[in-house]
Amino acid sequence: MKYGIAIFPSKKIQDEANSFRKRYDPHYALIPPHVTLKEPFELEEDQINDLIQELKEIAKHTSPFKLEIKKVSSFSPVTNTIYLKVEPVPELMKLNERLHSGNVLPQEQTYSFVPHITIAQKLSHDEYSDVFGSLKMQEFNFEQTVDRFQLMYQLENGAWTVHETFTFGQE
Amino acid sequence: MKYGIAIFPSKKIQDEANSFRKRYDPHYALIPPHVTLKEPFELEEDQINDLIQELKEIAKHTSPFKLEIKKVSSFSPVTNTIYLKVEPVPELMKLNERLHSGNVLPQEQTYSFVPHITIAQKLSHDEYSDVFGSLKMQEFNFEQTVDRFQLMYQLENGAWTVHETFTFGQE
């Protein structure tokens, strides 16, 4: 089974992200707007209980942190993905690190962690220039407290279903 | 905010349901296949913590139960919704009842509870007859254990995001 770990921001931020994703993100229908904490990974289903124990332990030792969005950025020239930049506060960066340690959680991390909420991807070059050109000058001003992350699994159609929520500082 | 409570069945059942939903259910992209335990309800955001306490209490007193699917059925002539019929085992029916009691959870229930996973809705009359005609003779044979339900909230685009998972028999 393919699993992934993400934070779903507040409804307000999700609604804002969706106003762009609707037009510019082909993954719009597969998952609500999110911050990926760990890239999708394969795991045998009989390991799921061990995985959940590790995630509970990690959540227990994580404190709620502030999620702040001030601007839009892009992964160009690597890809033309446009995203709401999430400020890399220490507790969020530490959470990402913890999710790449342990016995069951795969430890490889292909890219360095740049916390973000994707709002556009797989655009043509011209479309990318238009959209990013108009968004990069805009100011955004979102702030919320994050106190949980979610373990999801992927269906055959590419969509994601939440398996379990892990709340910070709890058993 | 609009909230809803549902069970997401196993990946296997979700994949099966999606093979129909993809063509026959306009809600396909808004939420993965699910058993609705409680119809969407409005709640002020400052009541969410009380709601979660009630749901934890209900989950704690619910035992895991068997979810069994043997056939397809339909709400015709009320609506032409087609669904995978979920056997109404006592623990599931009791869970639905409990979700309509308490102080925060709205108690009204418009329809009597018929546990189901929708696979087709809002079809034209002819389409409905075709699809239901070919599915109603088919045997289905799915069985799994359910040990959790999910509290979701609805975004402006109609899609649902999971807020929290409640596992049976746990604090």
Automatic annotation (TrEMBL), chains A, B:
Where can the motif HXTX 2 be found? 116-119
Query: What EC class is this?
Result: hydrolase
Keyword line? Hydrolase
Select a single GO molecular function from the record's annotations and give it: hydrolase activity, acting on ester bonds
Motif HXTX 1: list the residue ranges: 34-37
Q: Does the keyword Hydrolase apply?
A: yes
- Which residues does the Swiss-Prot or TrEMBL record annotate as the active site? H34, H116
- EC numbers: 3.1.-.-
InterPro entries cross-referenced by the UniProt entry = 2H_phosphoesterase_YjcG-like (IPR050580), Cyclic_Pdiesterase (IPR009097), YjcG (IPR022932)
Q: Which PANTHER family match?
A: PHOSPHOESTERASE SAOUHSC_00951-RELATED (PTHR40037:SF1), PHOSPHOESTERASE YJCG-RELATED (PTHR40037)
The text of the family note is: Belongs to the 2H phosphoesterase superfamily. YjcG family.
Annotated protein name in UniProt: Putative phosphoesterase FN924_06290
